[in-house]
Each structure stands twice: as structure tokens, then as C-alpha cells.
Design brief:
alpha+beta, Thiol Ester Dehydrase, Chain A, five-stranded antiparallel β-sheet, globular
Length: 141
């Protein structure tokens, strides 16, 4: 059973992502795998823009251990999509992000998903606690 279709006010933080020609699939709409790339981009951009992560030098990196997406309506290129991001469950070593995908002019989500990051040591790939800085930032998300 499909969950209730989320609305824009369910999220506070948004980032815009422009679709590309290659994002359309043979059926003429944005391919499902592109949504996961948008999720990854939105989360990474949020972390990097706050100085919480540098993909080249941070000792702690974040690995995706679970993700999912529910689709409500298709969209085709060209489009500028707004990706809503908020923190769901925040654990000791992981965080679950809730993500909504919207057309600029729409209040209803095209899709919504989740994206689970586990903080790990870059060298050993073993889980480490989320930093106090990240936990504080997640409270505002």
C-alpha cells in the first residue's frame, strides 16, 4: 500500500537540481536510478556546505546502507526539481534522511524516499559515532 503523498511543508531545507537530457529513459520520464543520484547529491551538498564533510580529506566518511523511494508522479527533462531534505532517525552512528522531490510550482511530492548514512572511519571502514557538530546540525534540518 502506497503511503500518503507528502506535501512541501513536510520539509524545511530544499536544494534545486536541474535534470539532464540523459536522465530521461526510453519511456520519456526521469529514470528511477536518477532519483537515487539526486538523493545522494542533496545529502552530500548539505553536508559539504556546512563544513561537515570533505569527500577528499575527512577522516569520517558516510556510507549508504539503505535507501528507498516511492514514486507518485513522473517528470521528464527538462525540469528543475527541488529536493526537500530532513533528518529522520538520528542514531549513534547513523542517520536516516527523509527526502522529497518536487516540481518548483507544485506543493505535492513527485517522489519521496529515505537514505541511511552510517559514519565510518575512512581507513578501517568501521562505524564511528556521529560528531556532535553533525548531530547539532541535523536538529536544524
Amino acid at each position: 500500500m502506497k503511503p500518503e503523498r507528502p506535501i512541501r511543508s513536510d520539509w524545511r531545507h530544499f536544494s534545486a537540481i536541474e535534470t539532464r537530457w540523459i536522465d530521461n529513459d526510453i519511456y520519456g520520464h526521469i529514470n528511477n536510478v536518477v532519483y537515487y543520484a539526486m538523493f545522494d547529491t542533496a545529502v552530500a551538498d548539505w553536508l559539504m556546505s556546512r563544513g561537515l564533510f570533505d569527500p577528499l580529506t575527512s577522516q569520517v566518511i558516510y556510507l549508504v546502507v539503505d535507501s528507498g523511494c516511492t514514486y507518485f508522479e513522473s517528470v521528464s527533462h527538462p525540469a528543475v526539481l527541488e529536493i526537500g531534505l530532513k533528518a529522520g532517525r538520528v542514531g549513534r552512528t547513523s542517520v536516516t534522511y527523509s527526502i522529497g522531490v518536487f516540481r518548483r510550482e507544485s506543493n505535492l511530492a513527485l517522489a519521496c524516499g529515505h537514505f541511511v548514512h552510517v559514519a565510518v572511519d575512512r581507513g578501517t571502514k568501521t562505524p564511528v559515532p556521529l560528531s556532535a557538530e553533525l548531530q547539532a546540525a541535523l536538529l536544524t534540518l
